[in-house]
Amino acid sequence: MPQLIAGNWKMHGLAAEAQALARGVAAGATGLACELLVCPPAIHVAAVAQILSGTPVAVGGQDCHQALQGAHTGDIAAAMLRDAGGSWVILGHSERRHNHGETDELVREKVLAATEAGLTPIVCVGETEDHRVGGQETEIVGWQIAGSLPKPFTGVVAYEPVWAIGTGKTATEQDVAMMHAFIREELVRQFGDAGQGIRILYGGSMRPANAAALLAVPNVGGGLIGGASLKAGDFLAIAKAASA
Ligand code: PGA
């Protein structure tokens, strides 16, 4: 299965910047062996999807509501993302878990809503620095997987240690190898053979200089990239590392 290189633009960029970034990514996206995805802020999804239609770059959202529709001021339904040209959605990112109090149970409901709308979910898991210092990293990630993924699950898991997100601190290859092997075991334990086929991305300060080494770790099926996805050149350099 090809590696998936996914850009999480978070809350960055006005319309003109988002569109320029999309054009920059599209310009270098042909001929790569990896799958490419960008997840702009929701308000830019439609325009970015229009720019990227007919290119190898897919578009996704950064969140969706668990309900199919209804009185939910300020929220976005999975079907709306789909309608705007999205085919993926990031769910349970640690920034949403922490800033918006999202629980594993809520993330699981969102995964069901996304799947029903025809979106492929990328479900984020990962321990905080305190958990890691306390030796609880696998326990926490195991609970998040058990709680956030419905059965059956058609999607991707992203391991993002919270202490490595936006900090410039990257998990070592050994940390990543250990955690991705653990996540694979958990997926197989919960989903049987299907668990072997679920891609597990690494996220947390991935950049052109460290991408090749991280992407070569066993059980790493791609990257979820924040900061380095805001520059088309850096994002494409990571995509090239994933295609080597
Ligand atoms: P980062 O963010 O690459 O800036 O660390 C990754 C993420 O939060 O998805």
Structure in words:
This protein is α/β, with parallel strands linked by helices and 244 residues long. The protein is built from 10 helices and 8 strands. An 8-stranded parallel β-barrel has the order 1-2-3-4-5-6-7-8, surrounded by 7 helices. The longest helix has 19 residues. The model has no long low-confidence stretch (mean pLDDT 97). It binds 2-phosphoglycolic acid. 2-phosphoglycolic acid binds next to strand 8.
What can be said about this structure in brief?
The protein has 244 residues and is an alpha/beta fold.
What are the defining features of this structure?
globular, 244 residues, alpha/beta
SS-derived structural category: alpha/beta
Mean pLDDT: 97
> Overall 3D geometry?
globular
Q: How many strands, which pairing sense, and closed or not: the largest β-sheet? A: 8 strands, parallel, barrel
Low-confidence region ranges? none
The radius of gyration over CA amounts to 17 Å
* Cross-sheet strand order for the largest sheet: 1-2-3-4-5-6-7-8
Q: What ligand molecules are bound, each kind once?
A: 2-phosphoglycolic acid
> How many helical stretches?
10
The CA-CA distance between the termini, in Å, is 14 Å
Give the number of DSSP strands. Answer: 8
